[in-house]
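All the exercises in this workshop are built on plain-text protein records. Sequence and backbone structure share a record, each on its own labelled line. The structure tokens are whole numbers drawn from a learned vocabulary of backbone shapes. The record below serves as our worked example for the rest of this section.
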Amino acid sequence: MGDGKDGGRGTSGLGAVLLAPVSGRTWREFGYLLLGLPLSTLYFSLTIAGVSLGAGLLVTFLGVPVLAGVLAMCRGFGQVERARVRGLLRVPVADPAPIRARKSGAMPALGALLKSGSAWRHALYSVIHFPWAVFAFCLAVTLWACGWAYLLYPLWFWVFPAFTDQPGLQLFRNDDYAFYLDSPLAIAATSLTGLALTLATPWVLRALTTVDRVLVAGLLGPSRLDSRVTELESDRGVVVDTAAADLRRIERDLHDGAQARLSALAMDLGLAKEKLVDDPEAAVRLVDEAHGEVKVALQELRDLARGIHPAVLTDRGLDAALSSVAARCAVPVKVAVDLPSRPAAAIEGITYFTVCELLQNVSKHARAGSASVDVWRSGDRLLIQVADDGRGGAHRDGHSPGDSGNGAAPASGSGSGSGLNGLTERLGAVDGILVVDSAPGHGTTVTAELPWRA
């Protein structure tokens, strides 16, 4: 039914129908429709007058600022309407993007306003909403007034015989005959009719306000282009943060790993050089130790290079690269890659690191006996599915009961973040999605979807 003040959130079925006429939602919607007519009359009158005046003055320069002023006024009307929808209909309609001129000054500002699609949509709303507001107002008031009047007729029908010469409400009259609602049966039938109208009115109001919701969201909210720009700006922020985290991770791994080992190697070789004449045996031992440090440093550098972008992925593609990752997993992994061709290098890299991270989580947390990796193409999308037979219970927030399942581990390999949240953000940066199916005790299946870009 709506919020808790609307007659109980848990009310359903017959109770919802009976409580609808007195619910807070119904009264808010009725108030919205009542207020809509005078406001729409004002919007319509001012917009038509302003556009007509501006169009008539276009033969002179005065028409340009007049039209710009009308569009700015219509955007103000939009603010009022969005506030009404948020407050009375409880619909969270976002504000459209502000109008920004590329240059400062009055003329660039006027030009930006006149070229704004959002401003013209506001003007269109001010015009087309008026006839709808008239219809909705008349229908809502008629149903509301007749419903409650007929429902409560047994309480006030006595007014007619007491103060008029009629026995009841006159329903029909011609020259020879008049029908009044004065008998007990007629009074009861009138009350039942009022009950039916009263119970039906909330649903009619809901249908009427649904049209208003669509109009406000479509014409007064942000356009699809604005929403897409906002989404891309958010995704760009995720990409920038991920890249910065990657650089910090590489710097940390170099500083704490290979760089430290190479520094120790340089010191050992310096000592060996000093002891080469005086103590050849000690010099040989130091050279042997330095040789071992070189091997370890080389392995760390290989691992670091593989974490940035593995050579096998570039040379042989996803099948070979994922098979190599599966071979290093702590549990047996079956890999199946069915791709007609290679996707773009960026998508290939994201696919590789997504599988790396999910398999690392399987190794550390799933307690699985086996796992599988499937990669295939469907239309213009690349799909990845990593499944295990572990204890499940993974969650999108990166934590699971007992830190189990694919979602419990921190991110690895390709970037920053923790668990599936960080992975979801990185996939979302390229219009990808992540779906997790992880019932406790039944294993975990993570499906990722990426755009196919060859």
About this structure: The chain is about 65% helix and 10% strand.
